[in-house]
Write a structure and sequence with these properties.
With about 400 residues, the chain is an alpha/beta fold. The chain is about 35% helix and about 20% strand. Strands 3-4-1-2-6-5-9-10-11-12-13 form an eleven-stranded mixed beta sheet, sandwiched between helices. Strand 7 and strand 8 form a beta hairpin.
């Protein structure tokens, strides 16, 4: 069987079973259905058949998934800790061409199960829908020993983006997106916050902290996140120089969803002599500022570009010097969700949650990465180069 047909068969199987379950039992006569199955009560037959079809179709559909996108150059990946204990995952361009590939999920099934529990999959017994991510490759060279400075600026320095995940996110779920950005000459430090909003994280003592929205109050979460961002911005330039003999140039903060107000909070609380020169925000969840941040439509104290999906654009979310609508992009396009399973599956899932928009997911990541490097180079959020892609439109 052609594997390209498997996702289609999965969707057809699910839709067929839904249609079957909606029909009256009288529609099944002995001439149409074997008498053995006809004797089984419908309350057992239909749900069981649906579950079997769903599980089989899902298992088949994720063969050879997730899809690792092509990149411009090799990328290394390392996990390190801040002095406070929070973890982060570093993505960086490297000259190394050989070595073991780092895993997509740093903690394997523990990471993927944490993600599945957050969206309710584990509770109803279908955590296998994300289980394949536990064994997937990141496409990055594990602990590559060198950073390629040739892709940097004329002074042989590389920009650093310190990035905050969303509510229920983690440092792994945008790995392919960050890999694309790193291949263009940016060092990305993807934080994994310790405030209870990570789907799962491993603390300094080796214990796991699962997502717990009540671990802290909303304001405490925001303050903890901002503190970890500021600590990273101060600690990492020297640590990167020590580990890789590489110079960090411009430093910016970024974030997705709840990570965006976290970055804004950090920038607003940074000291005057701070090295933070800008903000890159993806679908900023401004309503999660808990009254401590400027409202929708406000400008930041430092140069800021906000990128919004179709749904956030419809909600008229605007922040910073310029807001760019990424056309055909949904909330999940700012992480790797569209690449976790075939397009037909993720688009079907997007009828329920905004996992994958109609735009090509690889193109979305490429244009966001090119826009980010243009912003780092110009430090001008109004520059035309910041919105140079055909999917990007200033609003």
């Amino acid at each position: 069987m052609n594997q390209s047909m498997l996702p289609i068969l999965f969707v057809v199987a699910v839709l067929s079973m839904l249609q079957l379950a909606s029909q009256n039992v009288e529609a099944f006569s002995p001439s149409a259905v074997d008498s053995y199955y006809h004797a089984i009560p419908s309350v057992i037959t239909y749900p069981s058949a649906f579950v079997a079809a769903f599980r089989t179709g899902a298992a088949l559909s994720v063969i050879d998934q997730p899809r690792i996108p092509p990149v411009d150059s090799a990328v290394g990946s390392s996990v390190m800790r801040l002095p406070s204990g929070a973890r982060l995952r570093l993505f960086y361009p490297t000259k190394s061409s050989t070595g073991d590939m780092s895993p997509y999920c740093t903690d394997g099934r523990q990471t993927s199960d944490g993600m599945a529990a957050l969206v309710g999959f584990k509770q109803i017994g279908i955590s296998f829908l994300l289980g394949h991510l536990a064994d997937a490759s990141s496409g990055c060279i594990q602990d590559a020993p060198t950073i390629d400075l040739t892709s940097g600026t004329s002074d042989n320095s590389l920009p650093l983006l310190v990035y905050s995940h969303g509510f229920g996110g983690n440092m792994d779920m945008a790995t392919y997106f960050f890999r694309t950005m790193a291949s263009k000459g940016i060092i990305i430090a993807a934080l994994e916050h310790t405030d209870g909003t990570a789907s799962s994280t491993v603390l300094e003592d080796g214990s796991e902290r699962r997502f717990n929205e009540y671990f802290m109050t909303g304001r405490q979460q925001l303050m903890r996140r901002a503190s970890e961002l500021l600590e990273s911005a101060e600690f990492l330039p020297k640590e990167i120089e020590r580990r890789y003999n590489a110079t960090v140039g411009t430093v910016m903060l970024g974030g997705h969803s709840f990570g965006a107000p976290s970055a804004v909070m950090a920038a607003n609380g940074a000291p005057e002599q701070s090295n933070i020169k800008g903000l890159i925000l993806h679908d900023p969840a401004l309503g999660m500022g808990y009254g401590m941040l400027p409202p929708n439509g406000a400008k930041s104290k430092i140069p800021t570009v906000s990128y919004v999906s179709d749904e956030y654009n419809r909600a008229n979310v605007r922040y910073g010097d310029t807001t760019v609508h990424v056309r055909g992009c949904f909330h999940g396009n700012f992480v790797d969700a569209p690449l976790w399973a075939p397009n037909v599956v993720m688009r079907a899932l997007s009828l329920v949650i905004p996992a994958a928009g109609p735009a090509d997911s690889v193109a979305v990541h490429q244009q966001l990465a090119e826009s980010a490097i243009a912003f780092f180079e110009s430090q001008d959020p109004m520059s035309k180069s910041v919105r140079g892609g055909d999917l990007l439109k200033r609003v």
